[in-house]
Amino acid sequence: MTIAPPLIILFYIVSSDKFKEPTGMIIKSFIVGILLCFPAGILNELLIFSNEDPSSVSYIAGFTEETLKFLALYFYIRKQSHFNEPMDGIVYGALISLGFASLENYEYVYLTEYDNSMEIAIVRSVTAIPLHAFCGITMGFYFGLHFFSEKKKSYLLKSLFVPMIIHATYNFFIGFSLLLGIGLVIIVFFNTKRLHNELKQKQFGKKIEKEVKLKGDDSEKIYGKSYLNQEIAEPSFWDEKTQNTSTENIEEIEEELFKIEDMFKREVITKKERDLMRKKILKI
Question: Which residues, including other chains, have CB under 8 Å from residue 88's CB and lie 6 or more apart?
Answer without folding.
Answer: 17, 21, 77, 82, 140, 144
